[in-house]
Every structure is written in C-alpha cells, then in structure tokens.
Amino acid sequence: MKIFKTLYVATVCMTMMIAASSCVNNWLDQSPTDGVEAETAIKNSADLANVRVGLYAAVKGNSDLVNYYARQMFVYGDMRGEDIQYEHKAGSNRASFYYYMDYTTEDNFTRTTAVWQVPYIVIARANRLIQAVESGDLTDKEEAKDIINQYDAEARVLRAMALFDLTRIYGKPYTQDQGASLGVPIATSTLESTAKPNRSTVAKCYETIEDDLTTAINSGSLVTKTSVGYINLWAAKALLVRVYLTKGEWGKALSTAEEIIQGSPYKLWSRSEYVSAWNKSNAQHTNELLFEIPINDKTDWTDREGIAYIYADKDGTSPGYGDVIVTKDFSNMLTSDPLDIRNDILLAPGDKQSTYAGNKVYINKMPPVDGDVRYANVPLLRLSEVYLSAAEAAFQAGDKIKATSLLNSIISNRTSDANKLVTKDNVTLERIYIERRKELVGEGQRYFDVIRRDETVVRYTDTNNRGWHDILSEDARTFNRNSKKVLPLIPVGEINANPNIEQNPAY
What we know:
Elements: H1 7-13, H2 45-60, H3 72-79, E1 84-86, H4 97-100, H5 117-135, H6 145-170, H7 174-177, H8 202-218, H9 233-247, H10 250-263, H11 274-277, H12 285-288, E2 289-293, H13 307-311, E3 324-326, H14 328-335, E4 346-347, E5 362-363, E6 378-382, H15 383-396, H16 400-412, H17 429-440, H18 446-452, E7 456-458, H19 474-477, E8 478-480, H20 492-497
Antiparallel strand pairs: 1-3, 2-6, 4-5, 7-8
C-alpha cells in the first residue's frame, strides 16, 4: 500500500482517477469521495459534489493518515508548549515525538509525525475543484450556479487553511521578520509530474492565504447557517481572524472578530453548559462550534489513531491511549480558581495514579459518544477563541475598554467568582494570555501563540520545578523562537524528490 511521498506527486495524483491510483492509501480510494476521472473531467455539479466530499475527507483523515487534523496538528500545536505533556509513564508513544524534541537531521519525518502530507492532499483536491469551476465547462453552470459557487468558496477556505498551517509550522513567525524568510511551496493549480516548486516566502504564503479567504468571504456564496462539518461564512472569518492575529494586524483581527460576535448566530457556552456542551449529543454543542470534524460511524472515523483516543485515559470509562496530560504548572494555574468550570473539563486518572496525587490531568474535550471516544467530533474553530483574539487585538490596538468587555465575556461564562473580572485599569496582556491558555488547552494553539508573541516556553528549569515531566534535554526544557529546533525539518523524502526545496537549518 503506497502513500503520497512528495508535494508534486500528491498534486499530480489528483489529476488521475483516484480510485485506480497506486499513489494513495485505500482510504483515499473510497468512492464517491474522490471524484471522477481527469480524462473525462468534472462535468457537472454532481461531479463537483463528489470532489467536495473527498476534500473534506482529507481534512478529517483516517486511521492511516493522521498527520493533519486527525491527530498530529493538535499534538504539534500543544505538545511543543508548556501546558500539556506526554504521559511518559504509560503512554503509547503516539504523542511523544514533539515532546522530547530529540529529532536530528537524519530523521525522516514520516507520515505520522510531519504535518506535511495530508495538508498538500487537501490543497490538491481544493485545486481540482476550483479549477473545474474556473474552467466554465460545467454543463449545469447556470442552473446550479449557487451550489457551484458555494463549493468553490469552501474549497478556497480549506486551501487557505492548509497553506496557513504549513506556513506557520515550517516558516518563521511572520512577526519575526515580516515574512521575509522561507515558507512552503505554494500550489494554486494542479502541477505536472515534472514540477519541482521552490519554497515561497512566508509573506507570499500569507498573501495567497488572505487572497483565498477574502475571495471566499466576499463572494457571498458561503452559507451563514450552521452545517456541522462544513465551512460557512463565520468559520471562514474565524480563520481569517487567526491569520490576522498571527501577523500582528490588530485592527483587522478585531474588526473581523467583531463581525462574527455581532453578526453570527453563535453564542458562548454559559458556565452551566460548558462541560456537557462538549458532547456532540448535547443541544448546546453547536452554539460555540464554528467548524468541527464530524465522526459519524466506523467508515469515517480515525479509530485508535485519532486525537480523541490519544487524549482519553487508558483506564477511564471510555479508554484510550492516554498519551496526553496537562502539566503540573497548568493544573496549578487552573485550580487556583476552584470556581472555574474549566476544572471540570479535566478528568482524574481512572486508576488514581499516585503520580498525580488525585489531580485531574486528562483533557475531556472530545468526550465519548455511546460509550466510545472514537465517535467524538473534533473541534477546530470556536467562538471562545474569537472573543479571546478580539480581546488581545483590542488591547494591542490601545482600546482597553473594549478589551475588558471582551475578556469579561469569557471570564463571566467560566467562573462564578466575580472578583476574577477585570477592569480597564487592571486588564493586561498577561491576563488575556492566561485566559486563552485556560480556554484553548488541548486545541492545538498554545505553541503557535508562544512563537508569534516571541515568548519563551518553560517546561521546567531544574528538578525542583520539574513537576510531572519526564527528564528532558536542556534545549527541550526551555526555548524560544530563536531555538534551533523551532523550525522542524521538511520531510526528507520531499527534499530528495525535489532538490529545489531548501531544507530548514540543520540541527
């Protein structure tokens, strides 16, 4: 069974009948998720719908391809930070790679560790859909105009999301050098088998990302209602907020976030709703979820390789691998306010391991459905993040009154301790950052927040504050965005196949 080895192979294979291609994993062969033969082209909106299904399937992943939102994007975004860690005493080793950070130039970043392969599959499938629309050759382009334009807009958002994620992993933070350094290869059309694209600058990557997002948003073709598992207008805008925040463009981040807060049908979970609302069976579940990956049955789940199973305690009521726990420092920060309902989104080990002295350490944001965590939906974009991003952007733009109001919207819905509310006189960036850490733990955002803000990750400095951590090398205990290990290696197979791609600096 073969998988995509390179960017150009991944993109070229989209031009062939995926169901017959030897380039891909069997999951990618499932009909009708992968469209139709390139030789006969995409003829109409029905064919386009098939390609759309395959596009979302690539975002979702499966038990063989987990190096995007099926698992690895979350592991990368949190495990390299200081709020969660690998459960080294009993873990399955599925979430250890980015925790220990002991990779070297000889390491071949495989499909299970490098966030590279599947995002480019997403980009390739989006390209195929967009090109079919742009060709003007669809036989029902007039009769099915609205649905065709909707699919096109969704594909642009997902293409932007994949390029954004690749850029913020393999390129330096935009705020470090204003995008002058190398990002990743950009593919906005299907490439020939001989193509060997260069890495574009981070600035050019962001220009492409923003163009896709603003084109989709301004098209008027994205739906405004909630449709679980699909991109709508508000999800596209939430992603754009994340992009603007990453670039340090505070005014744009704030105004776009306010469009969502004021104009969308979404609302924050209340304190009483918070814990139960994470379960997709709860009526309030979709109130905050702007975009999530739905898992409906065994034909589309990630099974034991997915992020939900990695998070679940191996000795819990719905067991998993239990690879991921919060750190002792994070636990102390959260429990410092016993009235904060977010304490209850963590679970104590099922076997009451003395290691954690009864502390809650397992993240329960993808709780079991019908007794099985493998059926849990996977959250990607939430309204809480939009509020926190708006608060940060408002503060950075000098509007402390607005920052206070936005931050208090989160605080008042998470704790019953009124003393925790902020005022315009005592609101600080540090307090906004703390609330962001508490709210978004386990959602794959912490590490990206650290490097874009030029902070330092401090896991521990000596044995006195090591907490629950395993013994780590010195450069994995504390580091910032100037560390030699901040930029991961581009997969070796990609470099070997395309000599035009310059590798990130050697370790």
